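Researcher: Quick one. two chains, 566 residues in total.
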Amino acid sequence: MIEVEHLSKVYNQRKAVDDITFKVEKGEILGFLGPNGAGKTTTMRILTCYMPATEGTARVAGYDVFEESLEVRKRIGYLPENPPLYHEMSVKSYLNFVASIKGVPASRRRAQIDDVMEKCSIGDVRDRIIARLSKGYKQRVGLAQALLNNPEVLILDEPTIGLDPKQIYEVRTLIKGLAGEHTVILSTHILPEVSMTCSRVVIINNGRLVAMDTPEGLTNQMKGAERIALLVEGPREAVREKLQAIDGVLQVQAEGGDGGRPVAFTVECKLQTDLRKLIAQTIVSQGWGLLELRGVSLSLEDVFINLVTQE
Amino acid sequence: MHNILAIWRREMRAYFVSPIAYAVLTVFLLLSGFFFYSMLNYAIQASMMQGQFSAPQPMDVPGMVSRSFFGTTSVVLLFMIPMLTMGLFAEEKRRGTIELLLTTPVGNFQAMMGKYLASLTFLVIMLLGTVLTIGALFLYGNPELKPILGGYLGLLLYGAALLSIGLFISTLTENQIVAVVLTFGVILALWLIDSFSSSAIGLTRDVLSYLSVIGHLDDFIKGVIDTSHVIFYLTFAFFGLFLTYRSLESMRWKS
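Model:
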């Protein structure tokens, strides 16, 4: 649905986007992850035909964003970083204006506006002036605007910014619900958002694409070892020796345990091994108290920090 | 066409919900009304004086008043027109709504025309407001209709030309104040060319007096509709719109 090939954008000799290539299949939700200033917004602006690329091509629904910009613009819904709102208008008249410039036929406008207002839960402020709305409402009016005319492709630049936790949850659910029928690209620097909503993640840093995979794939790819956390009541050094002796254990770290308190261990094991059962047996058979045992998975946060600091 | 209409409608609404429209309308009508009143006074006194010292000769008081009314109104418009155009693009850029306009299927041309026509409509509303003032002449006198209609047509064309310059300048900045000051400066310069031209000689003089936006208004006010003046204003407006269009296109590249 979206094909980006060797895309670059240079601003005053600074490369904001540097040779990015990726693809988004129909119905997918792609998360665009990166620190501030990584080039997320620039890439989105190129995809929405707001600005041309310096090099490379981008196609949306088979149309080139530069050559066939009008066809692309008919098929996308775009929520920029700052929602593009006319502050003097009421929510309803604003949506009506956007619907008309997006070419929604007059007969279907009303139904569509009611529909997007319901989806974004802004029906209760339909007659309010946009300038007087809270940040959360403004953000959702911006989102409603992007959904008008039921675009095939949605490009959302930080859609949950400025929302409270409940609204964030609602908007994420809404975006998830769009998958399948719509193709969505959303940018964010909130990591849980990506693992919760996106089917695939692209991480960019300093304008370059540093990783592209599913959220699970990324965490798997990045971890060098399986980790198990333990809380054991027993003699620190003896426990450590026993653990170290288990086949497949790479390293054992111990923490605490002074004055007879339980000791926390972190055991690193070879990849693709599950030693939890063996470890539990070892400890219990020695008569020590096994208070806690859990597998530690690398969070997307760790992956992200790793990738971004590696650069 | 339907996009132009949508943009036009939004701009008209924006004019009338902001205090700018009311301030501009009020000041414009007050000033033009005041000048009308003082000119009427002057003309009446002049005709009375003339009657005292010599045998009364027919004097065209309404004609005098309407002529100088259109002259001064054109100057008042000079100050008002930058206010009508300052926000048209500058405000979209500042608010970020330009990102909406440029990513929906609205073309640059349609966005430009919608806005231009809205400013032109506002100008018509301003001019219609003065019809009441001029109407007073018909109530108490018997003025010739032709110079008045010519005057209105002239002011409309003159305004259309200046609005296109304002629209262009509004695309250059995201600050309304900068837009208003620059527009005013350019318009004033085009107006002052008239006085420069009288001190120049030869070809320079001809060129300068041709460029003077206000010089082309004289014949309209006298009730003479000369196509060369009409063409001057239309060319001027077309040129302003052409610059606007170009500037909008280049905005994509610069942003």
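Residues 2-254 of chain B form one domain.
Researcher: Thanks, that's what I needed.
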